[in-house]
Amino acid sequence: MPIRKLTYTSNSDWPAIRDWLDGRTDPGASVDATVSAILADVKSRGDEAVAEYTAKFDCPGFTPDMLRIPPEAILTARDAVPADDLAILEESIANVRSFHERQRENSWFTTAPDGTVLGQMVIPVDRVGLYVPGGQGGETPLISSLIMNAVPAQVAGVPEIIVTSPPRKDGTINPYILATAALLGLEHIYATGSAWAIGALAYGTASIAPCHVIAGPGNIFVATAKAQLIGSVGIDMIAGPSEIAILADESATPAWIAADMLSQAEHDPLAAALLVTPSSDLAQAVTSELSRQVALLPRRDIALKSLKEWGACLLVADMETGLELINKLAPEHLELAVTDPWAMISKIRHAGAIFMGNHCPESVGDYFAGPNHVLPTLRTARFSSALSVNTFCKKSSIISTSPAYVAAHGDKIARLARLEGLEAHARSVDIRNQEKG
Fold first, then answer.
1. Which CATH superfamily, name and number, covers 4-25+240-369?
2. pLDDT tens for each residue of 173-201
3. Active site residues
């Protein structure tokens, strides 16, 4: 198995590891230019541009009147999905909803003895756009992404949620996406994808209303479009290729570790799968298991390329050194495949999601447990968090002061304003006290 064997002994080894992993981040200037042109076209021509791009890349003959998925088609898709699958989807939705309900923030107010009222009002945005990749030709839809993005928006109280997903060759959207939308109670579904869908969600068209926040994963064109729209709309995050780091001791089962590494490697040739361990025996056993298991995968070509370019077994002297390296990696997904993960949790500073122990594979969080699987990548877990209810809310500060407050503090406020050279600011306070006098 062509997987790197690296050693981390101290901070001096980090720059080489960092520089290697940073090779996953550069899309190239051509993507930026292409996406910029697409966004400008969609902003100018609306539905016509969206339909033309959709016809060119996804569905020949696509026209603007095919954009909106009729409500009856959503219900028909739900009825066509096997009942057992619907039950699983319903349970997953319930678990995700239960977790995110605990994230809801309340507005709050404080009152001082002089009657001053200060507070924070938490308000959902008016409209959210969700992007759902269709997968290979629309046949491997990211159903879980729809759940993970829609549920926190609903818990936040967003009044209107719009979903876009690229159509299949016949202009339809995979029935599992539509069935999931039906279970979530979503009605505004549009058959379009890539950067032109993001442009439509941001700028609005005759068919698609403009959104205030756009969320959802996608390819480099989707990610670049979202990046270019920062400042015009809110976005969830700029997601890079997926990644997993597994910190393992001798208690870990090599076959399980290999399976978990492959669960990331099959995503994308740029996905990173890293094992951090003080055990050279475990590293060798995992390498052997990777060779055996990858041959069994339908997406083995993708997984092999990922492992060859971005997979590694990183040997450390001990678990303390391993924890130091993990915090530098700041991985999207971190598995603690150790005897006592709870003894380590307080030492983890940077990770998108942490999976505790040998019986908690990352797939548990991807699909079912409840926490969000939209996580910071490319070491951004150093300063970013998982997608949450807060992604779809905004906060307004509330300030209510009395004449007595302005009289008591006006001179101090005016002095601060004049120190900054802002005379009009100072006078806006002075004039109230002068008129009172």
1. Nitrogenase molybdenum iron protein domain (3.40.50.1980)
2. 999 999 999 999 999 999 999 999 999 99
3. 332-333
